Automatic annotation (TrEMBL), chain A:
This is FxsB family radical SAM/SPASM domain protein. Residues 14-33 have a biased composition (Basic and acidic residues). PANTHER family: ANAEROBIC SULFATASE-MATURATING ENZYME HOMOLOG ASLB-RELATED (PTHR43273), RADICAL SAM DOMAIN PROTEIN (PTHR43273:SF8). PROSITE patterns: RADICAL_SAM. It comes from the Bacteria. Residues 1-33 are annotated as: Disordered. Keywords: Iron, Iron-sulfur, Metal-binding, S-adenosyl-L-methionine. It holds the Pfam family Radical_SAM. InterPro entries: Aldolase_TIM, rSAM, rSAM_sf, rSAM_SPASM_FxsB, Sulphatase_maturase_rSAM. Residues 37-276 form the Radical SAM core domain.
From TrEMBL, chain B:
It comes from Streptomyces luteolus. The lineage of its organism: Bacteria, Bacillati, Actinomycetota, Actinomycetes, Kitasatosporales. This is Uncharacterized protein.
Length: 429, 60
């Protein structure tokens, strides 16, 4: 077995957040300690550590973290069985009603549909024995290039839903998604999108990384035409150590400038087949008093853990955009339990709600919706830690306020300022 | 590039409104109704309040 990848970065991340101490005094009435919701609920299982594409913006293979080079290409059978055992044990201990299994990579279909089904079945079988009442939802996130009709038939029959990654519904909008020879992946991905649209029961949805060079209206309309049930626009993984792509632009909120027109199209979309748009839906939900269900925004405790192809237990991949070894925990499924991973300082820091945030965030009126944004986007090399606002702070605030204005209008409150003039300024926090 | 300081925008200190949550079948706007229905379903299932991975599509 390959020795699990270890790096001092795991300890550095934990210390940076741990040293700051508790912030209960300024946390306000709504402080959400991790202990209120025990257990991981989502297990991201790396099935294959390599990818057949070389997207120009990929943070895994071109970012600062090089751990992928040390991982076995495909997860060995002994690791599959140990992962299944660990998940079953954790699920039973925490009496979880439902868990998610996400088959991921690299590109998971490099292992073949049969292997994905076998991995999912091994986990399901182990969970069924240990926690018979637990529902297990399985998805695979793919670039689509290897998704054939036969593979989709098998995955669908096995109850595995497919998530597709692409950046728009035309070749031009996917110019950055190329193979290792620089060739466009579009023809194969379009075929996959059409296949999935014909099998809605097997279609989880699409993920699209924002490219400021594109027209958001064209992106939304072209993706809409491909018929996904669900869609999300992802901010490129970036932090204060290097510029987020496009942040040199004159506008202080280039990503909000992109997202707002996309939101307006979605908000006005009354036609059948409108996809759920995760980022916008989550912000609206939180404005209406609900809790978030995504790590991108909000204060909900992180529910996810990653298991790499050698059984290494890691934090989410997005941290690879921060520094080499950032997601490392020093734990693996052969020697450690998932409960030990829950106690890892880096993971615990993401289950503390307001207590993990920077002073600037705690003083911000939109903190309970923004939640500091994606954890990986807060990293600053000058401190080596994550207790900072997001590099997308201004974009998130603008987007949240725009959605709040739309909501105020729709609920007959009028624009924010008018609403507050009527209610006074003691309605919040 | 250093982390930002607050106060750059005119609305920097404006609190967010606290919206009352209407029933999903009482609103006319279809997108808003869908969001409200989803909130109800999530809270009824006990699945509320956990943050899931953003680099994976949600199962439906």
């Amino acid at each position: 077995m390959t020795r699990p990848y270890r790096h001092a970065g795991a300890a550095r991340e934990g210390l940076q957040d741990g040293r700051a101490g508790a912030r209960d005094g300024r946390a306000g009435a709504r402080d959400d300690p991790a202990g209120a919701r025990d257990g991981f609920r989502q297990f991201v299982l790396k099935v294959h550590s390599r990818c057949n594409l070389a997207c120009t913006y990929c943070y895994i293979y071109t970012g600062p973290d090089g751990s992928w080079r040390e991982r076995p290409r495909r997860v060995p059978d002994t690791t599959v069985r140990q992962v299944a055992h660990g998940i079953a044990e954790h699920t039973a201990r925490h009496r979880l009603a439902r868990i998610r299994i996400d088959l991921h990579g690299g590109e998971p279909l490099l292992s073949g549909a049969g292997f994905l089904i076998s991995y999912a079945d091994t986990v399901r079988s182990a969970v069924r024995k240990a926690a018979p009442a637990t529902r297990v939802d399985v998805t695979v996130q793919t670039n689509g290039t290897l998704l054939t009709e036969a593979a989709l038939d098998r995955l669908a029959a096995a109850g595995i839903r497919v998530g597709l990654s692409l950046d728009g519904g035309t070749a031009a909008l996917n110019a950055r998604r190329v193979d290792h020879a620089g060739r466009s992946s579009w023809r194969a991905v379009r075929r996959a999108a059409e296949l999935l649209a014909s099998r809605p029961e097997a279609y989880a949805g699409m993920l699209s990384t924002i490219d400021l060079a594109t027209d958001p209206r064209e992106v939304y309309r072209s993706l809409r035409r491909l018929g996904p049930p669900s869609l999300d626009f992802l901010l490129p993984h970036a932090n204060w150590a290097g510029r987020a792509p496009g942040r040199h632009r004159p506008s202080p909120t280039p990503y909000a400038d992109w997202l707002v027109p996309a939101f307006e199209l979605w908000w006005a979309d009354r036609e059948e087949g409108r996809p759920r748009l995760r980022l916008f839906s989550e912000i609206l939900a939180m404005l209406l008093g609900a809790e978030s269900a995504t790590e991108a925004v909000g204060l909900s405790p992180l529910a996810v853990v990653v298991i790499d192809t050698d059984g290494t237990i890691e934090q989410v991949d997005a941290l690879k955009s921060a520094y080499d070894g950032a997601p490392a925990t020093g734990l693996d499924v052969f020697r450690n339990s998932f409960d030990e991973a829950l106690r890892h300082p880096g993971i615990a820091a993401r289950r503390q709600g307001l207590r993990a945030l920077a002073d600037e965030c705690l003083a911000c009126p939109v903190v309970r919706v923004c939640g500091g944004g994606n954890y990986a986007h807060r990293y600053a090399a000058r401190t080596g830690g994550f207790r900072h606002p997001s590099v997308y702070c201004a974009d998130l605030e603008r987007l949240i306020r725009h959605l709040a204005d739309r909501l105020a209008t729709e609920l007959d409150h009028g624009p924010q300022e008018a609403f507050l003039a009527n209610r006074g300024t003691d309605c919040c926090n | 590039m250093s982390p930002p300081t607050r106060g750059a925008s005119p609305s920097a200190d404006l609190p967010l409104p606290a919206f009352p949550r209407p029933a999903f079948d009482s609103v006319r706007h279809p997108v808003l109704a869908a969001v409200l229905a989803e909130i109800d379903e999530r809270e009824a299932s006990g699945e509320a309040g956990s943050a899931y991975y953003s680099d994976a599509a949600d199962p439906r």
